[in-house]
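Note to self: keep these together.
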Amino acid sequence: MSNADLGPLVITRRGGSEPIRANGEAVGRLGEFWSWACSDLANNTMRGVLAEYLVATALGAAAGTRTEWDTVDIRTPEGWRVEVKSTAYLQSWAQSGASKVQFGIAPAAGWDAETGTTSAEVLRRSDVYVFCLLHHQDKQTLDPLDLGQWTFYVLPTRVLDERCPGQKSIRPSSLKRLNPLETDFTGLQKAVAACAEGTQ
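Structure:
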């Protein structure tokens, strides 16, 4: 196998009807795997991926596919680089109390999916951060697909760099002191545009 054969895969968007095959015979469908693997939207991993999708949808950037471990979470048609963070009071598992909510904001080394290399430079590479809080606190009615259960806070990355240069995490109370734009889903595009274009 030559190095030319080891470049990044070209990932095409799938629809869910694709067969899972054994000896040429369909033994299942991709959509069935998705239902099996991804139905728990309240766990930390899937909630984070859902939050990225919600923001990408609001920004008109969800037409392609998600790139795992990219240097930023979303790249918009306007060229804005957006980092998405999520947190929630409620989890899938049994809890003795609501979780203490906080968002990760640590600067990081950047990994290039095209080359498979990591930059040694540790920094925040986005233009804008979108903090997604699944604020609902009644476990019996929790539904991450109900966008009324989410609150979004949007902040230019430069504010984090100026006010929290080496900080690794931030709680919503501290985040609010940085004066982010608070919005529901319908206002996300306008809020991100204001932060990315420097009018916030």
